[in-house]
Specification:
The chain is an alpha/beta fold. It is built from 20 helices and 15 strands. The strands form three sheets. A five-stranded mixed β-sheet has the order 1-5-4-3-2, with helices on both faces. Helix 4 (about 105-120) packs across helix 5 (about 135-150). It is elongated, with a radius of gyration of 34 Å.
Length: about 525
């Protein structure tokens, strides 16, 4: 039993509107239909559906009679429920008054209210693994739909993943058994249905689709799309023995709007949970949340973890966010679990364990490296160092610094780890600090650069490679892609332009510092 408010909130404003809720009222126990001309046998806590009531006087009489029997509320179609005499009668009698949207089917509403009541009564029921809140509702609804169509049913999302299934699956075929065992339609079975145009018909919104039996023993399927507001939310699949009568097919299709409401509620709850997890993860990455909270709420375990930042095309736009979410789904399939992740500032941040187990950094790295992406050059992955949970903010800063080097073209490759690119980081940090100190304005470097700009001589690049390869002019020449004699000639002309004591080690170090600053800052 649950409160009237909780029942109305769970069904949602798409179908119900609370016109009047008494401060103290009985808990909701059951759903009953008021027969035309007679309220019938009512009991305490009943939700009374005024199916045949169309006149104000009838509605007022039903409200009074229901209140006398201790009913929780009367449900009337709008706009009748909003009439002032009816609202006044509900307040006087102290009974709830709920408005039902005019286009709502009473039969669908009965199903939905009863599944909601079942869920409230048994909130402690174990949820199916990975299915999330509301799974009990969805499995009960699958059983209800199966009884209507008289066939075992699965409810699936748009990616052919099984969200719920009814009883009697032992009466199906190997394809259905594999679907339930693997929690999604197997790829070979998907290919067969796709070749028959099933998914094309689903996307086009046909009411029901019948797929005949196949030569490999796959039994016929009756399929109905689940839509809400033009959006395809999923589909229901019934394994049938042969062609289905129009009555059964219509009854199967009539159940789709009720399932759609469940999927919308489920998605809204999942979105709320995801947002809460994302907010906590952001706090953890900023060092504003305790490691213990992260372990409890985000499912993180003891041991070193890395922060991984993923940069995709689109940046901080709705399109970019969609690309990152799609990438996260592909990653999850590749490693068998969904990483703890959050979208922040146009980047996807994930926290993964350092070890080589399922979902660890080595496995995630391999999945990302192998992930095909449109505009492959736009996909960059940078990982911070492995740290304890209390130091994830440090790993985040390291990952962002590594990503900055990738974006600047200093570090090549799609995937880079902070501890692997320490030489580039060292040079970049040193160059950044030297640039702030304006070291490149000292000495003869400005004159050498000016000569290059006016005469196209390339002295700056020549000097840089000569200093990087001390005592090895051939290696320096290879780096410049010139002949060693050309290198010697350039150095002689350079020393004629600006007198430099290149035998002095301090001069060489100072020049190299200036040149590194020019290239790396």
């Amino acid at each position: 039993m649950g409160s009237l408010r909780s029942v109305v909130d769970r069904v949602g404003p798409t179908l119900l509107h609370a016109v009047y809720l008494p401060e103290q009222g009985p808990s909701v126990a059951d759903v009953v239909i008021a027969e035309p001309g007679s309220p019938g046998q009512l009991a305490a806590g009943d939700l009374v559906l005024a199916v045949a009531v169309t006149e104000q006087a009838e509605a007022v009489d039903l409200l009074r009679h229901s209140a006398e029997r201790g009913a929780a509320a009367v449900l009337l179609k709008q706009p009748l429920a909003e009439a002032q005499p009816i609202r006044r009668a509900a307040r006087t009698a102290g009974i709830g008054l709920i408005g039902v949207r005019a286009a709502t089917s009473w039969a669908q509403l009965v199903w939905l209210l009863r599944t909601v009541l079942d869920a409230i009564t048994d909130e402690s029921e174990a949820l199916d693994e990975g299915a999330g809140p509301g799974a009990g509702d969805l499995f009960r609804l699958a059983d209800a739909v199966a009884s209507v169509v008289d066939a075992p049913v699965t409810i699936e999302d748009t990616n052919s993943r099984v969200l719920a299934y009814s009883a009697r699956q032992d009466l199906t075929d190997p394809a259905r058994v594999s679907t339930i065992m693997g929690r999604r339609i197997p790829d070979d079975v998907l290919a067969k249905f796709r070749s028959r145009g099933v998914f094309r018909d689903l996307s086009r919104g046909r009411q029901t689709i019948f797929v005949p039996a196949q030569r490999d023993g796959t039994l016929p399927r009756l399929i109905v799309p689940i839509r809400m507001g033009g959006e395809l939310l999923g589909s229901m699949w019934a394994v049938v023995s042969g062609p289905v009568s129009e009555e059964r097919s219509a009854a199967f299709a009539d159940a789709a709007p009720v399932v759609a409401l469940h999927l919308l509620r489920r998605r809204a709850h999942a979105d709320a949970q995801r947002r809460a997890s994302a907010e906590l993860l952001r706090a953890v990455l900023q060092g504003k949340a305790s490691p213990r909270t992260a372990m409890a709420e985000l499912g993180l375990e003891e041991g070193p973890h890395r922060v991984v930042v993923i940069d995709t095309a689109g940046g901080d736009t709705p399109g970019g966010e969609g690309l990152r979410l799609a990438l996260l789904e592909r990653i999850s399939q590749g490693i068998g679990r969904r990483p703890v992740a959050a979208d922040l500032g146009g980047l996807l941040y994930a926290v993964v364990p350092e070890d080589g187990g399922p979902g660890g950094w080595p496995e995630l790295r391999a999945a990302l490296a192998a992930t095909p992406a449109e505009g492959e050059d736009e996909l960059r992955v940078a990982a911070g160092g492995a740290v304890e949970l209390g130091e994830l903010a440090t790993s985040r800063v390291q990952a962002e610094e590594t990503l900055g080097l990738q974006r600047a073209g200093i570090v090549a490759g799609r995937v880079a780890g902070f501890d692997e690119v320490w030489t580039a980081l060292t040079l970049h940090r040193a160059a950044t600090a030297a640039a702030a100190a304006r070291v490149t304005e000292l000495g003869p470097l400005a004159a050498i650069r000016a000569q290059d700009e006016s005469g196209g001589t390339g002295y700056v690049e020549t000097l840089y490679e000569w200093l990087r390869h001390p005592g090895d002019p051939r290696a320096a020449a290879r780096a410049l892609r010139i002949h060693p004699n050309t290198l010697r000639y350039r150095m002689r002309k350079l020393l004629e332009l600006v007198p430099l004591d290149l035998e002095d080690p301090d001069v060489r170090i100072a020049l190299l510092t200036q040149l590194i600053t020019t290239r790396w800052s």
